[in-house]
Amino acid sequence: MNTGLKTVFLVIGFLLIILGFFMIIPYIVEITIGDKTHTFLLSSIFSIFIGSLMVISNQTEDRMLNIKQAFMMTTFSWVAITLFASIPFMYSSLNLSFTDSFFESMSGITTTGSTILDNIEKASKGVLIWRAILQWLGGIGIIVMAITVLPLLNIGGMSLFKSEGIEFEKILPSSKAIALATTRIYFILTVICALSFWIFGMDYFDAVAHALTTISTGGFSTHSKSIGFYDSVSIETTAMIFIIAGSIPFLTYLKYLKGDKKAFFTDDQIKGFLQFVIFASIIIIIYSYFFVKESIPHNIRESVFNVVSIITGTGFTTEDFGTWGNFSMFFFLILMFVGGCTASTTCGIKIFRFQIVNLFISKQIKQIIYPNGVFPIKYKNQIINEGILTSVLTFVFLYIFIYFILSALLSMTGLDFVTSVSAAATALSNVGPGLGDVIGPNGNFKSLPDLSKWYLSFAMLLGRLELFSVLVFFLPSFWRD
After folding, report:
1. Domain boundaries, given as residue ranges, for the chain
2. pTM of the full predicted structure?
């Protein structure tokens, strides 16, 4: 085995060891409340053992990776973590099948939030906190990847942010230092979020569990009614604040801490993201006022919360917005594709790609009016070259194309139209709930055929790893030397 592959398996080994140690947390929770099962302890020992074997057997002095091996490390790591993270689900008191366990684990680690649990309150405290931990780990995992790995792989225009990583390497000595600094910020935000939830009425356990899934924009809850269980304006407001905190570039936090006090106000992505949230909220508020016929305060409260939750792919819900009428179902389906900023915990196509597509369309219109004019596309004070523009446009086209293919495949498994199209959207964009009676905010994915769950699991991985990190493995040329 060449040194590059050794490094790939070495990294996976370390990640499995880390995952194993995190499994001890739900074990401690369960023995604290008197549960005598040892599922998490045994799963922890097994994960650490296999991870240690991989580390020991793949030691190498040269730990450099080429592009092909970087793709392998990215995808294989997430698949391996998902497999090992599903073990506690499979052997818990829930008695889940391998398919259901893998689906729940993939939904957790990709911060999707779709669940096969039909009665969440029946799950043990250990299982509930494990679901939350998976989303928290998935959130920080994708941030670190977006900062250190994806820009180098030139995926969907991510190379546009390569210069920001270089800029920080002048301040912090390496990508490792950037990752550690980002993790500290992520942890601090999680702690503040948990304390805020506790102050506003959640018990200790729920506060911690929801903080883990809020800052990661994951959306797993400890209750079947999600955040709506609490019926609290304070809790919903707190959730929105920290969802947005997890949706903006974490490099911006580093810029602010390094002295750039205007960082949050000058970032094009953040401004575009907040403007879109406000615009979408106004649309659904106006619609709700005229067609849902609720009071104005209620309309504003429900509309803004659910818009923020769906745009960012968090998936917390307070009401079944599918009952607000056909327009709301269509509107929220569109919102599922948007996502937040790059280098955040969010999902979807991402705001910066919509901004670049908008600039491209604007340029084309100007070119029609002024055929001899020169209209360079500038974003973040950079001129967008043809390579980045092509990469962004290809990503958006491929994203939509895969969505239609996935919808068709799901319909072939026997799902109805609304379930098929919304399940495809929510999985590919890592949102969580779908639309309709089956997988809507008040439903779950348990009744779906196993084949549908495997399609959706694959879609979650595709969406979380920006499509190309996974699709390259289907190219014969990728496997040639």
Report:
1. 1-95, 371-479
2. 0.93
